[in-house]
Amino acid sequence: MPTLSVYGDVHIPENLIHALGLKPGTELAFERQGDAIIMRPVKTNKVSQVDAGPKILAYTGSTVTLEEMDEAIAKGAAQSL
Asked: Which range of residues forms the domain containing residue 74?
């Protein structure tokens, strides 16, 4: 049976680690319910990855190349002078 260390650490049984899909670095949330402690893995929003940027912003327009962006930046800079 897991016990609390002097540092407040608790070893989570391996069967629970696998059942919940926990990985090193997984954030955990703790909640008190009466005399029990409920531990839940914090769900991450997979849409927040850099690759999903347009989805985050709900952008539905066309995409542009880096060259097109550079040209637009140069044009805007020239107009501001």
From this structure: 46-79
